[in-house]
Amino acid sequence: MSDVGVIFSLFAGTLSFFSPCVFPLLPAYITHLTGGKMEDNKMLVDRKKVFLRSVGFIVGFSIIFISLGASASFVGKLLMEYRIALMQIAGLLIIIFGLQMAGFLKFKFLMKEKKFEYRNKSKSMFGSILLGMAFASGWSPCVSLALSSILLLASSTETLNQGILLLGFYSIGMAIPFLVISLVLVYSLKVVRKINKYLSKLSFINGVVMIALGFLVLTGQMQKISAWLSIYNLFPQ
Q1: Counting CB atoms within 10 angstroms of each CB, which of 61, 89, 115, 135 has the fewest?
Q2: Alpha-carbon distance values, 79 to 2, 73, 86, 108, 171 (Å)
């Protein structure tokens, strides 16, 4: 499962970053991280500080996400004898999450937030890491649907390392655009405003991807695709 799962995890992480619940708040996160301020349509702050604090934030949310992946994989290993049933349940839930994100379903209980706020100003690298951990611990509804799908996928993997790998690539999927857009904010807010116009479409795409992933897991086709991809050694073990 790892080859296809890694691709989906990376893609899900990227689209999670561009979700309507996360991306519009990016300028606020960056100003909180760096202590900078918005003026003349850009953020006034040292670029080196933006880079270092953003890296700290990324490390923080990666620690939480990867820990969740390891936990999900560990629980899955304990229930290995029920692996086929777990995969079918996971596939069905991922489909439901995808339908919710794409806008075909409107279950309110899937849109509840888990709150854990870190209110102090981030004045150091360590503070940036803590803020990243707080963000991951209190993820918004948009992120939780995609993240829960990858966690379900991790719970059905054969080894603990595969679960860690999936959430590692999910974190990378969020980290790369976060770092790039953070540096762009130093020069202009125009890019952020332009991307905001397409967030609903990106959310729909994310939902469709999750639905496809769910069907692959539910029908057992994930392993067949992974076996085919293994010929090319995309992610050798």
Answers
A1: 115
A2: 19, 10, 8, 30, 26
Residue closest to 211 by CA, chosen among 95, 123, 90: 95
Q: What is the pLDDT of residue 118?
A: 46
What token pair was written down for 167?
């959430």
- Provide Rg for the chain, Cα atoms: 18
216 neighbors 225 (Cβ within 8 angstroms): yes
Is there a contact between 150 and 172 (Cβ–Cβ < 8 Å)?
A: no
Distance (Å, whole) CA 174 – CA 13 = 5
> Whose structure tokens read 């620690």?
63
Are 26 and 186 in contact by the 8 Å Cβ rule? The answer is no
Q: In whole angstroms, what separates CA 181 from the centre of its chain? A: 16
8 Å CB contact between 186 and 47 = yes
Q: Which of 19, 17, 20, 70 is nearest to 178 (CA)?
A: 17
- pLDDT single digits (tens) 173-207: 999 999 998 888 888 788 788 888 777 787 788 78
The pTM of the full predicted model, rounded to 2 decimals, is 0.79
Other beta carbons less than 10 A from residue 73's beta carbon: 25
* pLDDT above 70: residue 114: no
Residue 109, both tokens? 């209980």
Which residue in 208, 179, 223, 194 sits closest to 26, CA to CA? 179
